[in-house]
Design brief:
CATH topology: Rossmann fold
Low-confidence stretches: none
CATH class: Alpha Beta
Structural class: alpha/beta
Distance between the termini: 18 Å
Number of helices: 8
Bound molecules: P1-(5'-adenosyl)P5-(5'-thymidyl)pentaphosphate
Largest sheet: 5 strands, parallel
Shape: globular
Order of helices and strands: EHEHHEHHEHHEH
Radius of gyration: 16 Å
CATH superfamily: P-loop containing nucleotide triphosphate hydrolases
Strand order of the largest sheet: 2-3-1-4-5
CATH architecture: 3-Layer(aba) Sandwich
Length: 207
């Protein structure tokens, strides 16, 4: 049984990751690909609890170091219990956010050292990296407006505009550093056009 492929979906707040996740899942299933859909932080009982703690707006101030370690603690559980077993069985994994989010939010947004994040990435993931990453990108105002219209803002969504600008810049830098793996899709356009671009990228990848 060939190993499955690992696809991740990335981008700032409200850019349309969750909206397009189901579309991608259905597209893969149409092509007879067995796919596990999951998310980060989260995907296991413990990792979902850590997600709650990370997003909760009422907690005590979480230090940058604690935040980074919680994100990777959740990832370690998720990899061992969900992602690795699925890939080994030949299933594909479609994940809403992964380590590029850490480089963007904790690296770009919080200014944490990239070498520290890389060290933790190797500790937790070994050589495992996504096979394909779709980076959904839209101007900050568009994403924040969409996020605001939908729910009460969580701990990250309550950050200042400059934080999201740094996050966006860091994501685009990741795409520049890994052009073969990360494909940027602009989402400040009608959903149908976003879907067409996604089909182009995933269609080529499947072939
Ligand atoms: N985090 C995560 C870290 O700090 N480090 C890490 O390592 C990881 C893994 C997780 C938070 O954790 C942080 C980052 C995050 O802040 P999350 O729920 O995964 O949170 O991320 P959010 O960005 O908060 O997810 P959202 O659900 O808010 O945003 P989505 O999924 O990008 O957006 P979506 O699909 O819900 O769309 C938002 C609205 O826009 C509409 C949708 O209908 C929806 O109403 N929409 C469009 N409208 C018009 N045109 C289009 N093209 C549209 N696309 C979507």
């Amino acid at each position: 049984m060939p190993r499955g492929k690992f696809i991740t979906l990335e981008g700032g707040e409200g850019v349309g990751k969750t909206t397009n996740l189901t579309f991608i899942e259905n597209y893969l299933k149409l092509h007879n690909i067995s796919v596990v859909v999951t998310r980060e932080p989260g995907g296991t009982l413990l990792a979902e609890k850590l997600r709650q703690l990370l997003l909760d707006n009422d907690s005590e101030t979480i230090t940058e170091e604690a935040e980074l370690l919680m994100v990777f603690a959740a990832r370690a559980q998720h990899l061992k219990l969900v992602i690795e077993p699925a890939l080994s069985k030949g299933q594909w994994v479609l994940c809403d956010r992964f380590t590029d989010a850490t480089f963007a939010y904790q690296g770009g947004g919080r200014n944490m050292k990239i070498s520290t994040i890389e060290w933790l990435e190797t500790l937790v993931q070994g050589n495992l990296r996504p096979d394909l990453t779709l980076l959904l990108d839209a101007p900050i105002e568009v994403g924040m407006e969409r996020a605001r219209s939908r729910n009460i803002l969580d701990r990250f969504e309550s950050e200042k505009k400059s934080f999201f600008e740094q996050v966006r810049r860091a994501y685009l830098l990741q795409a520049e550093l890994h052009p073969d793996r990360i494909k940027v899709i602009k989402t400040n356009q009608p959903l149908v056009d976003v879907e067409n671009e996604i089909v182009n990228v995933i269609g080529t990848f499947i072939k």
